[in-house]
């Protein structure tokens, strides 16, 4: 009687519609072929060969989807791929086969995959299955890397980068026993021959690779040393992304415990960046190949980062935060907008009430209030939950009430807890800050109604401008086409730091004028002293221009600005820029410019005009001077207190605001 002690080995060989080999999975192309070969290591025989053609979700009946590399790698046709079954069906069929013939019967046995390197599972199957919300079976979470097993057993001096390299290293000849088998990818035959040779030579597969599919919590201290070869920076993330969402983007790669650190802006908001720490350099290098892969419709940029970068964001020295995070909760929820006198008991009751209650880990010990250095509350708190399933129930209470205040809830991370606690205890955080607009000197703003809209392509976009370029230099560059610029039609684009971005939009008097300007001035040189640079000129619509100039937010007709209305303190008015009409084409020179006027009328009782803050990128500008401001109030009159309201409906009017404060006689309209 034969005693089966070894699990089956199963070759896993995928082919995508795009790049193959060392670039497999780097282009996000979908799988179009999977070959499974089941091997009994005890008898060193092939048990079964299963080959599945897979239909991509993006397959178009009228377009070719297979690359030349794919066609040379596998015996596939466009028609066969388009008529095939989708990935989820193929995986379900194979799982059914495994349950029936491998894991059941008189002598059930396990099964472990063998792959040609790390890419087939880590960079190919796992990311695609995650993006398609396909739940993979547990046997996809471990495998043997044939290249590593080969190099270890045969003590190969050079690294094996392909199946062909391993075959040539051993000088192997074709195996006549495998000739009758028709493989749809010829490399599978060589791969199978290599595995059978290893078993025949006495090799025992023992270097098991494990794929971590869940991000585990962990704490990083300020004194911890992090290997710079293991860290990347991801940019362009959706602002609502959690650490688990970012780990899903890197699905298939092993992120270190607590290895996702969301970066916060100086205002404490997430800025769309994260630092990610992997278990080793091999995984970091694979992560770099996901540069410009997508989360939904957003492409994510991935760059190398240093260990110090990670520690600066994720590291903490706050003992209270360390004790809180060491409790081992799987889920951290950030609460914002709490009453200042809120207690831990009220937080527990908040989550334990309603139709879908959830329990906080360790009761009151699982609630951490964020406080200022003097002990006063900030209205923020972090709450721990034991299981991942608690996250949905907890976040379902978003905007429910404690007392009369609605509470905002967000999925948080260990790194965010560290950052927020570190900042809350830093006295500099609460020093009087200049309004953000003050950081952008000499950037007068154009009223919203001056920015055009519509789909007519009567605008041009200039890219690659010298940073020293002014409106007059643009007019000189356009030459005879400058006479076709409309009144107030030159719009420079500035970045969030108030520096020129190297771009400008020009409104022309017709689509024909825009077409001729783009055609005749594209890639021509702009000369500025000894500097010269060729400028890209594109024809575009007012709608295109409007989206860029307003930070991607479609203009609302009822608004005069896409930003919030702010007001400076007394005596600071001269430090803030105000609207000046852009000079273009036939406009008067700057020396004869009309006096500046505020962008909107200010309440007379307050005695100062409002300031408008625009999101990145900044609005069109033609900077020359400042608004002069108004004198402060008389000594016997107290300066008014400024209140900033967030979250107003877009249709809210001044009367609506005054009605909201009708019980406060101090508010003057």
TrEMBL record:
Annotated RRM domain residues: 230-307, 331-414
Entry keywords, A to Z: mRNA processing, mRNA splicing, Nucleus, Repeat, RNA-binding
Gene Ontology MF terms: RNA binding
Keyword RNA-binding applies: yes
Xref: SMART domains: RRM (SM00360)
Subcellular location: Nucleus
SUPFAM superfamilies in UniProt: Ribonuclease H-like (SSF53098), RNA-binding domain, RBD (SSF54928)
CDD domains assigned to the protein according to its UniProt record, in alphabetical order: RRM2_Fusilli, RRM3_Fusilli
Gene Ontology biological-process entries: mRNA processing; RNA splicing
Cellular component, GO annotation: nucleus
Entry's family note: Belongs to the ESRP family.
The name this protein goes by in its record: RRM domain-containing protein
Protein species of origin: Cloeon dipterum
Phylogenetic lineage: Eukaryota, Metazoa, Ecdysozoa, Arthropoda, Hexapoda
